[in-house]
Amino acid sequence: MYIIPRRRDVLVLTAWLAPVVWEGTFSRDILNAHYMQKNLVTGVVTFAVKKYVQFIEGFMSSANKYFLTGHQVNLYLFTENPEQISHLHMAPENHLFVIPVQNHSWWQDISMSHMDIISRYICSQFQYEVAYLYSIDIDVQLFEHIGAEIIDTLVGTIISWQYTARCESKSYETRTESQAAIPKGEGDFYYTASFYRGSVAKVCKLTRACFKGVMKDRENGIEARCRDESHLNKYLLYHKPTRLLSPEYYWDEELSQPCIIQVKRMCSVHKDSKK
Ligand code: UDP
Ligand code: MN
Fold it and tell me: Domains (ranges, CATH) in the chain?
């Protein structure tokens, strides 16, 4: 019999009854045993073009060590330099698939096409290979285990600044001309586009809907204030996530750490190193 300690200092269940995962709210042993029986293959999609190629090594080695350890993971790396990747050593249960991607002329285009590329590859490849799909930024490193507690049908990660004083620094798109517009006063949480996931079918629907919104905005000569992240937030407002991850799962290292963040499992790499 396991006794699961409860957190009383943070929200652990949303108003629509989705769990919010924090350190101390689950037993990874129980979850691992449960998911091991299912023999699930999980996919991770990440992009590394232009100067972001420098983050491949740090991301891959830390993901190999800490991401769904013991479970089979397919890592799908979209990059313009596939020939540079051959030296990466993968854990025996992980497989790396390097997929060449064209060099887009400016960053906005890469950002805008992520959703499109992911949805197209889901149809042509991923849906036959994995049950769940995760989209993760490459400019991150994992420092602690991220395990079966993150598996669910549609999962969003709450952005770090929601738990700091800098709450106003980013927010929803409110201009009604944008497809990403969220009416003033609405919105549950602000979710990061750096880490979202779900069943392959749900991620397909999400990425398609977001890309449709991006394209419609482009036709109308408007760009949502946080680009695909704004569209993701709109989508997750009207398609409630079945599970939320606390910012322990993607902590912004530029923010000071409040005491409710007991573990930093995955963190952004310092922005200076992108220059
Ligand atoms: N990206 C890339 N090359 C670029 C810009 C972005 O490969 O020149 C990819 C990379 O995977 C990155 C993701 O797009 O992690 C999101 O961009 P970024 O990390 O700059 O967004 P932020 O975390 O600042 O919102
Ligand atoms: Mn990033």
Answer: 20-269 (3.90.550.10)
